[in-house]
């Protein structure tokens, strides 16, 4: 298959060999699971259980709220012992409503929805409803509710379901292992998704550093004429949605549009597997594969982890932390989030837990920018990071936005390559957050203003009506006086 | 375990650093420098040392005065590089005080008055060179014929100290004109270029540096090797050197074809003066050149064009340093107007038109 070049990018040290040959092992069910009601993009789910309830494996604990949301299910059977605000698996460390489930060790299944015998005979709506009620979100890390994304075929004429097996983040091997060990499940899930999307073609893109996964997927897809496996160059951030679309199809998604607007929808390989489980067996999303790696981990592993498992349990399962670590990261080292507390749980978006030593992190004090321009030439989005950062440093956020801040995908390539160790992405994330907050504030002010204006107008109308009434009454009484005088 | 979070990702970093970049540039300059020291003897070695040490010393002083860490900042190697490039642009036997004054202009005025590393608008080495060129034209245009170390014409260490730190009559007796200067002088005497170029150093001599000229500009071949090394190491990209040299070569070739009596040929433009040194080492200075590749092409073209104009029409035989400074002044404007095309947008910054995939 003909590929297309993508601009910029970097070639970090991948260090995938730490876990790439470690088969996925299942984590024994932990004694206590912590399930935040928001593990996805969109609105938080609302709890449908209360403290003291006994729940079965697969039972819904919290229902999705609104269009963009996802429910949360019990990963095992047990008792709800607490529903309270607890530290969220988020760099802010702010509290979030969390359902605490004490496992009873029986791992007893609830009554699951019936398997969909022939998904290809069912309508898009049926598949989407199943995916939605199964709590499936993008497992590549974006955690966007998959059912919503499967609805993109309604508005757009889709040609390709592009399954993302690039796994361009260093260290992470969870998708690699899933493709190697569960190729048939991934392919089946992908075909179901393509059917729901109305996309005639499935392309599965895998970076060339995963030859075994490519081989396994080719074998599993050999009987499917509309499924193509394609090896893409090893180049970070190949796995970014728009860039992968461009690399595989040559189509450049216009700014502020979706890849669906150019006929392509991108889903992660692990999401496809979860959809296979939901559709074929009625099983909701209860666990995910997590790569626990880094030189700070005694025994790096790929683990199938029940959602809600505290990171501490995961680290314990891998022999614990080995000596001095500099950073503990959830996800990959490029776009992952720092872990603030090892008590926080694994959630739907946790693709990796990395314990990184000082050597791996290679942090150094920031030096003055020498304007070498490397950040400009490697930016996969064609931006000028050096200039944006300079503007942001002076709090000139609107100007930074005018030169493309919102086009930045925070891939981290510029920060990674900077010889002066300027934390460019840190500036961009700060500015994006600040601009969002300002925007919210502005909208709130406008709303308040509109309400005040409406109220004033209403009061004015009332006053006017009163004045009119008074005038009429006066006129009438004058009339009657005149009448009296006449009389 | 709770961990303080002080920055967002990425949590890995390429093994790059400012000092690594500077070291690579110095390594690229080393062969040409050693060759030039051999070529011009002990006085050149002393001149080189005086210039580099002046720059480093002045940098330390400026850092101390501005209450910034002296040791770690000196370790970035930028002052050494400035001094090194400044020395390359000086006449090989320039007296110590000319070197020192140039260093004061380069480090104190061009660099630290603007805020230090990364903040300067103008290339410090070129500011230093131009300041002494216009102030001390005699000392700055007194070039010597090469006399390799150990040869009869090469002064010993003691004599050399006299040449650089005292006054020596020896310099006057050995002085010669650079190739560009020779052509210019002859032209002013009414001798056409087509004739004077026959008696000027030939191309081989220009490439090998066996002719009079500034310390670092005479060995075009070794400088070129150094420049190619930097491109191979991805310290610089081809854009600026190719734009500078391409423009000079093209203008030289075209105009020499039109009027060979008035204009020097493209090959001569390429190999004489500071063309190669300027194209690979001076114009590519990160701080003072545009950050985008397309901007760098414009910038390189501007330097090539201005260099040719100054060499051909102005009073000075060599125009590289002036051209670099003039284009330095334009760098912010180039950066403002020429940006890479953002993903999903047109060159003007509008979202790309949607022409497919819609129902």
Low-confidence blocks of residues of chain B: none
What is the highest CATH level, the class of one domain in chain A?
Alpha Beta
Total strands of chain B: 2
The strand order across the widest sheet of chain A is 1-14-13-17-15-16
Largest sheet of chain B: 2 strands, antiparallel
Characterize the main sheet of chain A: 6 strands, mixed
The gyration radius over C-alpha positions of chain B equals 22 Å
What spatial form of chain A do the alpha-carbon principal axes imply?
Answer: globular
Poorly predicted segments of chain A: none
- How many strands of chain A? 17
Rg on CA atoms of chain A, Å: 28 Å
Subunit structure (chain A): The complex is composed of six subunits: RnfA, RnfB, RnfC, RnfD, RnfE and RnfG.
Subcellular location (chain A): Cell inner membrane
Main location (chain A): membrane
Protein name (chain A): Ion-translocating oxidoreductase complex subunit C
Provide key terms for this protein:
heterodimer, A: 487 residues, Rossmann fold, Fumarate Reductase Iron-sulfur Protein, Chain B, domain 2, six-stranded mixed beta sheet, four-stranded antiparallel beta sheet, 14 helices, B: 359 residues, mainly alpha, 17 helices, globular, electron transport (chain A)
């Amino acid at each position: 298959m003909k590929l297309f070049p993508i601009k910029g990018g970097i070639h970090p040290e991948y260090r995938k060999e730490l876990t790439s040959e470690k088969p996925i092992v299942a984590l024994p069910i932990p004694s206590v699971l912590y399930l935040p009601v928001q593990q996805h993009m969109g609105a938080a789910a609302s709890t449908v259980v209360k403290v003291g309830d006994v729940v079965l494996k697969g039972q819904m604990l919290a229902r999705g709220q609104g269009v963009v949301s996802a429910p949360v299910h019990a990963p095992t059977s047990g008792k709800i012992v607490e529903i309270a605000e607890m530290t969220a698996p988020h760099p802010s460390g702010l509290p979030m409503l969390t359902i605490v489930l004490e496992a009873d060790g029986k791992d007893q299944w609830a009554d699951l929805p019936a398997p969909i015998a022939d998904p290809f005979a069912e309508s898009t709506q049926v598949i989407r409803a199943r995916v939605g009620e199964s709590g499936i979100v993008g497992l590549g890390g974006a955690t966007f509710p998959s059912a919503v994304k499967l609805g993109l075929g309604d508005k757009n004429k889709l040609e390709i379901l592009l399954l993302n097996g690039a796994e361009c983040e260093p260290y992470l091997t969870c998708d690699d292992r899933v493709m190697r060990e569960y190729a048939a499940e991934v392919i089946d899930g992908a075909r179901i998704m393509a059917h729901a999307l109305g996309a005639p073609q499935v392309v599965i893109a895998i970076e060339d550093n995963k030859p075994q996964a490519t081989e396994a997927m080719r074998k599993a897809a050999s009987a499917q004429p509309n499924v193509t496996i394609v090896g893409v160059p090893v180049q970070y951030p190949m796995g970014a949605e728009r860039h992968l679309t461009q690399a595989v199809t040559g189509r450049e998604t216009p700014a502020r549009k979706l890849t669906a607007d150019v006929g392509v929808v991108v889903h992660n390989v692990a999401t496809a597997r979860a959809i296979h489980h939901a559709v074929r067996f009625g099983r909701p999303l209860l666990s995910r594969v997590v790569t626990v790696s880094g030189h700070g981990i005694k025994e790096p592993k790929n683990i199938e982890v029940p959602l809600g498992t505290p990171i501490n349990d995961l680290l314990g399962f891998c022999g614990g932390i080995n000596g001095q670590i500099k950073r503990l990261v959830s996800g990959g080292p490029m776009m992952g989030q720092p872990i603030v507390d090892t008590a926080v749980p694994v959630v739907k978006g946790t693709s990796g837990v990395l314990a990184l030593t000082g050597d791996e992190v290679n942090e150094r004090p920031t030096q003055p920018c020498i304007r070498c321009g490397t950040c400009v030439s490697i930016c996969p989005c064609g931006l000028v990071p050096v200039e944006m950062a300079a503007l942001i440093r002076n709090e000139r956020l609107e100007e930074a936005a005018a030169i493309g801040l919102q086009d930045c995908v925070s891939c981290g390539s510029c920060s990674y390559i900077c010889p002066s160790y300027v934390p460019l992405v840190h500036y961009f994330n700060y500015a994006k957050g600040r601009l969002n907050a300002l925007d919210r504030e502005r909208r709130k002010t406008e709303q308040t203003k509109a309400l005040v204006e409406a109220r004033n107008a209403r009061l004015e109308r009332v006053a006017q009506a009163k004045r009119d009434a008074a005038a009429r009454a006066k006129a009438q009484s004058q009339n009657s006086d005149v009448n009296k005088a006449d009389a | 375990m709770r961990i303080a979070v002080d920055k967002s990702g990425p949590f890995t970093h390429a093994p790059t650093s400012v000092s690594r970049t500077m070291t690579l540039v110095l390594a690229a300059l080393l062969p040409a420098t050693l060759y030039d020291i051999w070529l011009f003897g002990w006085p050149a070695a002393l001149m080189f040392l005086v210039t580099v040490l002046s720059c480093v010393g002045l940098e330390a002083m400026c850092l101390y005065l501005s209450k910034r860490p002296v040791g770690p900042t000196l370790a970035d190697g930028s002052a050494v590089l400035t001094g090194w490039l400044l020395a390359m642009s000086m006449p090989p036997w320039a007296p110590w005080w000319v070197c020192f004054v140039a260093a004061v202009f380069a480090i104190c005025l061009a660099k630290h008055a603007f805020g230090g590393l990364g903040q300067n608008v103008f290339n410090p080495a070129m500011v230093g060179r131009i300041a002494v060129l216009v102030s001390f034209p005699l000392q700055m245009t007194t070039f010597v014929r090469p006399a390799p170390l150990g040869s009869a014409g090469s002064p010993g260490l003691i004599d050399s100290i006299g040449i650089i730190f005292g006054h020596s009559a020896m310099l006057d007796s050995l002085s010669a004109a650079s190739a560009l200067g020779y052509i210019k002088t002859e032209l002013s005497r009414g001798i056409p270029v087509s004739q004077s170029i026959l008696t000027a150093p030939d191309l081989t001599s220009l490439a090998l540096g066996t002719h009079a000229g500034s310390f670092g500009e005479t060995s075009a071949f070794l400088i070129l090797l150094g420049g190619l090394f930097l491109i191979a190491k991805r310290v610089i990209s081809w854009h600026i050197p190719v734009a500078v040299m391409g423009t000079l070569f093209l203008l030289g070739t075209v105009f020499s074809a039109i009027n060979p009596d008035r204009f020097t040929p493209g090959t001569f433009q390429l190999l004489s003066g500071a063309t190669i040194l300027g194209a690979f080492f001076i114009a590519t200075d990160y701080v003072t050149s545009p950050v985008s590749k397309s901007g760098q092409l414009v910038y390189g073209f501007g330097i090539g064009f201005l260099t040719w104009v100054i060499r051909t029409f102005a009073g000075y035989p060599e125009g590289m340093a002036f051209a670099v400074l003039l284009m330095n002044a334009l760098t912010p404007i180039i950066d403002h107007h020429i940006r890479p095309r953002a993903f999903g947008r047109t060159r003007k910054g509008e979202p790309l038109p949607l022409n497919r995939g819609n129902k």
